[in-house]
Amino acid sequence: QLFNPFFLENGAVRINNYSQPFILSLFLSSIVYFVLVLAITNAYYPLPDLDSYYWYKEIQDQSKAGIITNIALHRPLFSSLTYIFHVGAGIDLYAYFKYVLPFTFLLGLIPTSLLASQFQGVIQKITIHLFPLSSASFVLYSLMPIPQSIFNTGLIYFICFTLYSWLTRRIVFYLLAGL
């Protein structure tokens, strides 16, 4: 049976009855994630790393020249996503590097919530939700405005989708993980 993201059954929308432990663990984990990202991004005004300024200058020069991304250079996915947010969404380049990229780490709550829904206890659910925070180096690299931060968010999805597929035997999540 394929996963239906809209919870449709016989043409009607079905609302999942999430348990109290799941809602509690998701709420507490969301607070921890949000406070952590907010504290790290607001701890200083400048960008946290020299590598961020390199990318800031590269993207700024490319957008002034009207180039979406130079495919011949390295990291075309990062350049393209940055260009889309900067030009397409009208977000200032500094604000994108300072706030948008670090807050993409919060997207890790989506796959961890999917995986946590398979466990019973509150402690188990909170542990699964906080799994991406288990390594300080992983967290810091995920919160820096560098290409590796996008990879780290993708890595969270890969691990959680693979484990969820293994637990539920749903092949679609195995495929979504890229395996």
Topology record:
Elements: E1 8-9, E2 12-13, H1 20-41, H2 50-65, H3 76-88, H4 93-103, H5 109-116, H6 122-129, H7 136-143, H8 147-168, H9 171-176
Antiparallel strand pairs: 1-2
Helix pairs in contact: 1-4, 1-6, 2-3, 5-6, 5-8, 7-8
Describe the fold and architecture.
There is one protein chain. With 179 residues, the protein is mainly α. 64% of the residues lie in helices and 2% in strands. The radius of gyration is 19 Å and the shape is globular.
Distance between the termini: 19 Å
Estimated radius of gyration: 19 Å
Shape: globular
Report the helical percentage: 55-70%
Strand content: under 5%
Q: Give the biggest sheet.
A: 2 strands, antiparallel
**How many β-strand runs?**
2
Strand order across the largest sheet: 1-2
Low-confidence stretches: 11-15
Number of helices: 9
The secondary-structure class comes to mainly alpha
The secondary-structure element order is EEHHHHHHHHH
Mean pLDDT: 82
For the structure shown, list the relevant keywords.
two-stranded antiparallel sheet; 179 residues; 9 helices; mainly alpha
